[in-house]
Amino acid sequence: MLSTGLPQGAVPKLERPGPLRDRVYEALLELITTRALQPGQHLVESELAGHLGVSRQPVREALQRLNTEGWVDLRPAQGAFVHEPTEEEADQLLTVRTLLEAEAARLAAAHAGSPGVAALEELCAEGEKAVAADDVDGAVALNAAFHAKIMELAGNAVLAELAGQVDRRVRWYYTPVARQRGKQSWVEHRGLIAAIADRDEQRATVLMREHTEHTRRSYHERQRG
Amino acid sequence: MLSTGLPQGAVPKLERPGPLRDRVYEALLELITTRALQPGQHLVESELAGHLGVSRQPVREALQRLNTEGWVDLRPAQGAFVHEPTEEEADQLLTVRTLLEAEAARLAAAHAGSPGVAALEELCAEGEKAVAADDVDGAVALNAAFHAKIMELAGNAVLAELAGQVDRRVRWYYTPVARQRGKQSWVEHRGLIAAIADRDEQRATVLMREHTEHTRRSYHERQRG
DNA sequence: TTATTGTCTTTCGTCTACAGTCTACGGCGC
DNA sequence: GCGCCGTAGACTGTAGACGAAAGACAATAA
C-alpha cells in the first residue's frame, strides 16, 4: 500500500499525451464530421502531416483506421478520399442502427436498475432543456449521450462497439437535418425510459424501433422537402 | 474503342500483388485463426517483419487494423498481443451474431429470387456432402459460405460488413467444437431455405434466430462437457 | 483536328535510422 | 535473507529519405 498519504483521486496521472496516431485520428474525425473536410476530398498525407505538425507516419496510421471504419476510402497508390455517402448506404446504415438500438433497449430493460433509470431521466431532462433553448449542437450531443447510456446499461460491450461506430456515422449524415426532429424525439425518449423502468423488454424494443424508424423517415423526407 | 482484337475477358489483368500491408494482414489473420499464434502471445514487430520478409512498416499497419477489428490488443509502448477471448465476450458476440443473421434472413426472404434460392440449395447440398465425408474444415467453410450467401441476398452492404467480422470471430472461438453440431445444422439450413423461397420473412427470422441460438447453446455446453 | 505518345510532376509505398519508454536483472544497503 | 535502487537491454513510437506508380499535359504525327 502506498504510504505517501496522497489523495488517490487527485494524482494528476502524469498526463502523457498518448500515442500520436490516436490524436491524429481524433483530429481528422473531427474535421470530417464537422464538414471541414468535405466528402470526396483528396487527403494528401504530407499536407495533413504539415498542417498537424507531425510526420507522415502517424497520419498514415490514422487514415488506415479511418478506412476500416468507413470514413475514408483508401484507393491503392492514389491515397485517401473522404467517403461520399450515398442514399442507399445511409438507408442501410439506418436499418442496422434500428436493429442494434432496439436490441440494446431490450437488454437495458432486462438489466437496468434504478440508478440507471435515474441517469437516463437526468439526460432526458437536460436534452429537453437544450431543445427549449434552441441549442441544436447541445441537443445532438445529449441525444448521443442518451443512446450511449442505454448501450452501457445493456451491458454488451461488443454491441456497444458496433453501435458506437454506426451511430457516429448516422449522426454524420443526419446532423444537417437534426433540427426538424427536436422535440418529438425527447417525448419518445420518455416513453422508452418508462418501459425500461418497468423492465418491459417487449415494449422497450418496440419503442426504440419506432423511435429510430421515425428518425429514418425524417431523413428521407428531408430529400423532398 | 480498342481495335486490337483482344478478347476482353481473357486479358489476365496483370495480377499485381496489391498493397503489402493487406497481404501481411491476411497472413497474420490466417496465423491467428489457425492458432499458429496463440491467444496472449506477444507479437514482436521486428520478428514478424523478418519472418515475412518485409520491413516493420507494413507489419505495423496490419497490426493496427487487426487491433481495430478486435483480433489483437495493442498496449501502448509495449506492443501487440493476440486477443484472449473471454467467456463473456464470446457470449456477447454470439448475441450480436444472432441479431445480424436473423435480420439478414428476413431481408433475404424479402428480396431473394429463384436464382438466389438455387444457389443456397447448391451450397446446402455440398455442405451435407462434406459432413457425410467427415470433412470438418470443408463443412465449416461451406457453412460460412452459406451464411455469406444469405448476407449477399439480403442486399445490405453495411449489415454484411459487420456480420462478416462478427462471424469470423465467432468461428475462431467456435471451430474447436464445430464437429458436434455437424448434421443438425444443415437440416436447419434446409428449413431456412424453404422459408426464404416462400418469402416468409417472419418464419425466416425465427428459424435463423433459433439456428444461431442452437449454436450458442452448443458452445456453452462444450464448457461443461 | 484528333489521337497517340513521351515526359514530367505529384503522391504513395516501403525502408532505414534515432529517440523515448518499459521490463528485467543484478548489486547494494538494511 | 529481504527489499530497494540503478543499470542495461529490448521494443515501440516517430521522423526522414528513397524508389515507384499513377495522372496530367504538351508535343507530334496521321
Summarize the SSE layout with pairings.
The structure is a homodimer of 225-residue chains.
Chain A: H1 20-33, E1 42-43, H2 45-52, H3 56-68, E2 72-75, E3 79-82, H4 87-111, H5 114-132, H6 136-154, H7 157-174, H8 183-197, H9 201-224
Antiparallel strand pairs in A: 1-3, 2-3
Helix pairs in contact in A: 1-3, 2-3, 4-6, 4-7, 4-8, 4-9, 5-6, 5-8, 6-7, 8-9
Chain A binds a DNA duplex (30 and 30 nucleotides) through residues 19-21, 44-46, 54-58, 60, 76-79.
Keywords (chains A, B): DNA-binding, Transcription, Transcription regulation
GO molecular function, one term (chains A, B): DNA binding
Organism (chains A, B): Streptomyces brasiliensis
Q: What can you see in these coordinates?
A:
The structure is a homodimer. In chain A, helix 8 (about 185-195) runs antiparallel to helix 9. Chain A is mostly helical. Chain A is elongated and about 55 Å long. Chain A has 2 domains: about 15-80, Arc Repressor Mutant, subunit A (Orthogonal Bundle); about 85-225, GntR ligand-binding domain-like (Four Helix Bundle (Hemerythrin (Met), subunit A)). Chain A has helices spanning about 20-35, 45-50, 55-70, 85-110, 115-130, 135-155, 155-175, 185-195, 200-225, and strands spanning about 40-45, 70-75, 80. Chain A is built from 9 helices and 3 strands; from the N terminus they run αβααββαααααα. Chain A has a 3-stranded antiparallel beta sheet with strand order 1-3-2. The interface of A and B includes residues 76, 92 and 158 of A.
